[in-house]
């Protein structure tokens, strides 16, 4: 007689089903009808503000090669992408951006007003909805930009952002960047109140916390820690030194880790 126990097919089914539940990285959002990524607060991503370092290179292969090497160096420092807050003025600016997007490493993100990867859009622009839908139709990701010179109340900003995301069925505004203008006075408490107000929003598609990208106010560690406590996991820095500060904070938090782009 065989000493093997009968094979329980139903038990195998339950194990497989529960395993898939815990291993899945998406969930079904009933508002948008989409499967969206689960927001993992323990995975911290860091981006570089490159607004003042972007050079024209579309005519010079040597310049393009140097920029490519610099992007690769940023990526090796666990930087996931660059934000370029420079408004294009001439046709050459678009050709230059096309070159940058073409030479950037795989999985590295370029955010700008004329990017071919992730397009910045002013949330207060009168034609913001039409712009977002137009880019989404071209399979371009979009990022809503909020500046600290906006005199609106946090709840007013949150309402406008939520309306934009919901009226585009959650497909536009993949990220929401709180862009703190360099050289201007920034009140960390005011920015935190705005972050909290935005985090409370229940919008179609991915959660607001998973969309939020926040400048670190010149590497303000206390501010970054507060943001992490809210559940924000994406930050924009001005230098590699500030990346090291984020690494230190992540290490102190214990359960969090800096995402390395590969």
Secondary-structure map:
Elements: H1 9-23, E1 26-29, E2 34-37, E3 43-49, H2 61-76, E4 79-84, H3 91-103, E5 109-112, E6 118-122, H4 128-137, E7 141-147, H5 154-167, E8 175-179, H6 188-199, H7 208-211, E9 212-215, H8 221-230, E10 234-237, H9 240-253, E11 257-258
Parallel strand pairs: 3-4, 3-10, 3-11, 4-5, 5-6, 6-7, 7-8, 8-9, 9-10
Antiparallel strand pairs: 1-2
Helix pairs in contact: 5-6, 6-8
List the quaternary state of the chains.
single chain
How is the biggest beta sheet arranged? Answer: 8 strands, parallel, barrel
What's the total number of strands?
Answer: 11
Uncertain segments are: 1-23
Identify the strand order in the major beta sheet.
Answer: 3-4-5-6-7-8-9-10
Q: Could you give the order of the helices and strands?
A: HEEEHEHEEHEHEHHEHEHE
From the N-terminal CA to the C-terminal CA, the straight-line distance is: 54 Å
**Residue share in helix:** 40-55%
Strand content: 15-25%
Sum up the overall morphology in one term.
globular
Structural Rg:
21 Å
Number of helices: 9
Return the average pLDDT rounded to an integer: 81
Class from helix and strand fractions = alpha/beta
């Amino acid at each position: 007689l065989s000493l093997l126990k009968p094979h329980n097919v139903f038990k195998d089914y339950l194990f497989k089903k529960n395993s898939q539940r815990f291993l899945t990285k998406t969930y079904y959002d009933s508002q948008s009808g989409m499967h969206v990524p689960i927001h993992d607060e323990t995975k911290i991503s860091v981006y570089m503000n490159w607004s003042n370092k972007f050079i024209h290179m579309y005519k010079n292969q040597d310049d393009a090669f140097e920029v490519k090497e610099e992007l690769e160096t940023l990526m090796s420092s666990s930087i996931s992408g660059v934000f370029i807050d420079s408004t294009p003025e001439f046709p050459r600016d678009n050709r230059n951006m096309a070159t940058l997007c073409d030479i950037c490493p795989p999985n590295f993100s370029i955010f700008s007003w004329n990017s071919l990867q992730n397009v910045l859009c002013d949330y207060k622009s009168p034609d913001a909805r039409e712009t977002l839908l137009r880019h989404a139709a071209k399979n371009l990701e979009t990022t809503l930009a909020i500046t600290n010179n906006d005199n609106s109340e946090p709840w007013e900003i949150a309402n406008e952002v939520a309306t934009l995301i919901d009226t585009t069925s959650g497909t536009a505004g993949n990220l929401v960047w709180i862009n703190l203008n360099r050289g201007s006075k920034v009140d960390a408490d005011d920015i935190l109140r705005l972050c909290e107000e935005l985090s409370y929003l229940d919008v179609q598609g991915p959660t607001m916390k998973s969309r939020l990208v926040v400048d670190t106010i010149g590497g303000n560690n206390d501010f970054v820690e507060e943001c992490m406590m809210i559940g924000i996991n994406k930050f924009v820095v001005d230098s590699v030194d500030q990346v090291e500060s984020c690494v230190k904070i992540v290490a102190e938090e214990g359960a969090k880790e800096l995402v390395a782009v590969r």
